[in-house]
Amino acid sequence: MKHAIPPRNLVLLAFLAALLAPLATPQATTGAILGTVTDASGAVVPGVRVKAIDTDIGLVREAVTNELGGYTISNLPIGSYRLTANAPAFETFVREGLQLHVQETARIDFTMKLGSTSAKVTVTGAAPLVSTDDSTLKHLIDNQAATDLPLNGRNFVALAQMQPGVLPGIPGESLDTLLGNGLAIWANGQREFNNEWTLDGANMNIGFYSWNSFNPSPDAIQEFTLQTGMYSAEFGFQSGANVNIVIKSGTNQFHGVMYEYLQNSDMNARNYFAAAIPVLHQNQFGGAIGGPLWLPKLYNGKDKTFFFFNYEGYRNRTQSLGLLTMPTAAQRTGDLSHTFSGAPYTGAILDPLSKTPFPGGIVPSSRITPQAQKLLAYYPLPNTLGAATYNDYVLAAVPNNTDEAIARVDQRIGNSDTIFAHYAQNVIFKPSAELVPTFHSTTGVTAHNAAINYNHIFTPRTLNDFQVSFNRSTVTTTDTRDGTNFNIEQALGIPGIPASGKTAGFPSIGILNYTGIGDSTGDPVIQPDEVWQFTDNLTLERGAHHFKLGIDFWHDRSDRFQGVNVRGSFTFVNNNPAGTGNSLGDFLLGLPNQTALGQAPGQEHLRNERYGLYFLDDWKVTPKLTLNLGLRYELATVLSDTRGTVANFNFLTGQPIYYRPGQGIYSPFYAGWAPRFGFAYRPFGGDKTVIRGGYGIFYNIDLNGLFFGVDNNPPFAAQ
User: Fold this and answer.
1) Phi-psi bin for 115: left (phi > 0), alpha (psi -120 to 50), beta?
2) Among residues 186, 187, 173, which one has the least CA distance to residue 230?
3) Which of 7, 177, 421, 553 has the fewest CB atoms within 10 Å, i.e. the most exposed one?
4) 61 φ, ψ to 5°?
5) Residue 551 and residue 535 in contact, taking contact as beta carbons nearer than 8 Å
6) Cα separation, 392 vs 143, whole angstroms
7) Is 13's pLDDT higher than 70?
């Protein structure tokens, strides 16, 4: 049956949605500067005008200290800043060289001296290294680290793996092998599919997974933060790491770079088992440029319009070493008196009809099935003799191409409005090694990410940020015969296998102790995943309180077409009671131990929505103590299939479950309340010692396990 949202939840959602409709992105890409202004005696000074000037783009923002002498300037673009503080009867204070980072709250306190406002006191210094006013456990990796540290494959995720509490994922366990180039992160015990990845605040998770759809070039990344614990109510949907990547923006100065990184087999050692050094030619090349938008005699974008563009290409030409086992020429004629290595075969080759051994261990050629003879033509002859574990030595090419482009444009409209937009595309072409001629698969991934952000300042104490983003990733895995007119019955003489068109291909043949041949039983895969995201935040500075509230809405779509053994599979082992006692003998006589055949490919057309509503208050209780208070509510609508091509099984009743189009696949969950409490205490009042702690409830929306199962069940994909 369909599950309706209880009326009380509908009322709550409607109220909050109406409240937040004019508001702004939970995944913040900005920073903030706050502090306390005192005089020489230590007394707080209200009414001081504090200005933050972005020295890269000319942006000016200001605040006035409150009755407690405190000020906060929120939603500042990351970059280099100059701070000025002035008030009647006090000298002007200037702080140079402040570098503000993403999601950073930099504490800059001033001590004002009595004197003329025309007199200046200038100090140069960076922000404190210790986070003084929030309880979040996070790590910052800036552009210098991303570009200067040696990264194999220039994968920025390697830097995330170096942070405290973070471990590498299990290589090859999931799609991160492809999408993350083999790198994943486990944060504080959470798995790689419990993370949330954002690009300029825009979701870049793949639909019903939580893997990043691509990895931006280090030369395109300004910096990124890795939040691994106790993050505020602004963030949710996953309980693992929150990885927030910020793309570079243009400035008033033109900057550019061109590069190429090379790896070559001429510098490699030989594998002990290889006769020669496998070929490796790896090139990563590209460039980036950014600056003000300038069209001669038409438009000068200094202080107003900025652009940034990056392209990176990756070309890897290497070889994979295969030590294979192929039937020998004698074995193909029925002579099984020797093994593939040439050693005498010591067992008996039984005649299934008489249950007596074939004389000399030779299966009569007249008994070899036509299907086996046709299949043997696809096995190459051995090229190596004498080895105990293989008789065919192969070095196969493994090409790997990636092309990535990222563009961003920033536009200032006065001092109260800013807009930015970005578009990123990543295309991966990754064939597998063709160790056996005509058998290999090709995996392709095309990812798109786009976002538009609008930031408006109503007053210096009331700010709003709204963002719309789109993330799409299409994964395809195909074999050499997909989409061709290859016919299994015509080519191999095996009847009753309906694979054709998209699912055309070669059955999987497995012979114990010999290399298997055939196209993948799980191919083809055609899987587009997309997420539309709308986020809105409102920031309110009210005395000692920094309020923030917002909404985060996702619409998830994931379609999947996958062959589920539609080409058939045949397995030959030594223990077939109706066989010869020899796996190759059973193959020659057409006596598989196990067969499987899918009647149709699996298809899914899954949809759901996610709603995240939050309110937080960073309350400066005293100049030394800040409380981080927040409440978040998360609702994920029940996953459903739009075409009714999925099924499940009820183990309690022993009956199958057939889902109607739009019917929920599981029971809903409405109790997604996630309170957050944290504190930051500076016992000595400075920025060198901070005691922090907190408590929170976090939820995971983890659908990938279910996603892979419901399209493989009968009657839609029966075997």
Assistant:
1) left
2) 187
3) 7
4) -130, 150
5) yes
6) 48
7) no
Strand partners, 556: 531, 608
Report the alpha-carbon distance of residue 239 to residue 259 in Å, rounded: 37
DSSP code at position 159:
H
Residues 630/614, Cβ–Cβ less than 8 Å = yes
Alpha helices in 590-715 (DSSP H): 704-707
| Angle at alpha carbon of residue 459, lines to 454 and 460, rounded to 5° | 95
- With beta carbons less than 8 A apart as the criterion, state whether 396 and 319 touch: yes
Per-residue confidence (pLDDT) for residue 377, from 0 to 100: 96
- pTM score of the predicted model: 0.85
Query: 88-102, 149-163, 258-272, 407-421 — which one is most confidently predicted on average?
Result: 407-421
Compute, in degrees rounded to 10, the torsion defined by CA atoms 705, 707, 708, 713.
120
- Quickly state the pLDDT bin for 19 (edges 50, 70, 90): very low
Name the residue with tokens 């140069």. Answer: 124
The answer to whether 670 and 635 have CB atoms below 8 angstroms apart is: yes
Q: Are 108 and 35 in contact (CB under 8 A)?
A: yes
3-state secondary structure of 471: strand
Q: What is the pLDDT of residues 583-630, one digit of tens each?
A: 999 999 999 999 998 878 888 888 989 999 999 999 999 889 999 999
How confident is the model at residue 707, as a pLDDT?
62
Exposed/middle/buried for 254, CB within 10 Å: 0-12, 13-18, 19+? exposed
Q: Count other C-beta atoms under 10 Å from residue 549's C-beta.
A: 23
Q: What is the pLDDT of residues 633-678, one digit of tens each?
A: 999 998 888 988 888 778 888 887 888 888 888 888 999 999 999 9
Q: φ, ψ for residue 318 (rounded to 5)?
A: -130, 180
Amino acid, single-letter form, for residue 13 = L
For 26-39, letters b (16+ CB in 10 Å) and e give bbbbbbbbbbbbbb
Residues β-bridged to residue 283 = 262, 315
Confirm if 615 and 633 have CB atoms less than 8 A apart.
no
Which residues share a beta bridge with 655? 650
* Cis amide leading into 715 (omega within 30): yes
Quick one: 187 exposed, middle or buried, by C-beta within 10 A (0-12, 13-18, 19+)? buried
Amino acid at 180: G
Find out whether 101 and 79 touch, Cβ atoms under 8 Å.
Answer: no
User: What pLDDT shows up at residue 136?
Assistant: 84
Mean of pLDDT values over 257-270 = 87
Amino acid of residue 677: F
Q: Which bin fits 341, alpha (ψ -120 to 50), beta or left (φ > 0)?
A: alpha
Across 293-345, the runs of DSSP E, i.e. the strands, are: 294-295, 299-300, 305-324
Task: For residue 543, give both structure tokens.
Answer: 């005395």
